[in-house]
Amino acid sequence: MKRLLIVLPVLAALSACEQLGIDDPAKVAAAKEAEGKAIGSACRHAMRAIEDCYTLNPKALKAAVYAGWREMDEYMRENKLEGVAPVVPRPPTKAELAASAAAAAAAEAAAAEKAEKSGDKPAEKAAAKSAH
């Protein structure tokens, strides 16, 4: 009987773990699933490709994003809805960033070569401007 009196308050305290800030793993997983579906739905409504959704939301569950995207696609087709054009541009890929950096470096080199061929040096130009 004494054991029962000790065990009951402990069980009651443990049943209120959410009040202590301890998350239930099942609820966390359900929330991540719902968030992924919402992201996928929003991406489809914004006429983004599924790959764009994955790129823009790397922490979201890919399966949930795909499920939400697919559900929204079916819904939009059934109801003949048009998507909304996205406002946020697609982020550049690593290859695009590398290509733009290489192009900028090539442009700088070409400008320096042109200045060198013409005999003008940037330091001389600055000195000539400050003398006037």
From TrEMBL:
Region span, Disordered: 111-132
Lineage top rank: taxon: Bacteria
UniProt-listed PROSITE patterns: PROKAR_LIPOPROTEIN
Descriptive protein name: Lipoprotein
